[in-house]
Amino acid sequence: MKYFDEIEKSARERNIPVMEKEGLEFLIQTFNEHQCHRCLEIGSAIGYSAMMMISNIDDFVVETIELDDARYLEAIQNIKEQQLEDQIEIHHDDALTFDINDLKYQEFDCLFIDAAKAQYQKFFEKYMPLVQKNGICIVDNLDFHGMIFDIDHIKNRNTKQLVKKIKRFKDWIFNHEEYQVTYYGIGDGICVIKRK
After folding, report:
1. Where exactly are the structural domains of the chain?
2. Which of 17, 22, 49, 55 has its CA 20 to 30 A from that of 186?
3. How distant, in Å, are the alpha carbons of 40, 96, 110, 111, 136 from that of 132?
């Protein structure tokens, strides 16, 4: 695991968003509990979370989509170095416009959304239909460093808009009649979504 610690440290030093340790542990534990084996991840960054999942969940594969050129190339490199190409399929594309017919797998038992926060609802609506009936979705960064609870005091206009969008998604999903949502104050706020 030393290799993964180095990847995480390097990412943090360069301000590349990688999931917080306790959030990642929760994610792995939840996917294990639900006996998930096939994950669709929106937002690969440098491949850290996908590699952590593969290394801690038996018989697991991840298909993941990353928009950023540099992060995509670094993810490819990291996955190769760990010889995980058989278990991680990565696409270099914008998840909003990506053709889902290009996915290697057409059905998943878990969905993990950790990409552009302003687009959470669009990602969810586009990719949740690919998740099996009893599958789950995990969404990270729902509190946005606590700002979601104090929107009026955010000075930066762009940040304020972003936080409002996150809150809108949160309100929408929590009040959705088809889904049961459980919120956990872990890391930067995580919710687990299942069909009712």
Report:
1. 2-195
2. 55
3. 12, 20, 8, 10, 8
Under 8 Å between Cβ of 40 and 110:
yes
List the structure tokens of 158: 């762009």
Main-chain phi, psi angles of 106, to 5 degrees: -110, 0
Mean pLDDT confidence for 142-167:
80
Furthest C-alpha separation in the chain: 47
Contacts of 153 (CB under 8 A, 6+ apart): none
What the block records as the tokens of 71 is 């992060």
Q: Which CATH architecture has domain 2-195?
A: 3-Layer(aba) Sandwich (3.40)
CB neighbours of residue 29 within 10 Å: 12
Q: How far apart are CA 57 and CA 169, in angstroms?
A: 29
d(CA 118, CA 188) in angstroms, rounded, equals 15
Q: Are 131 and 108 in contact (CB under 8 A)?
A: yes
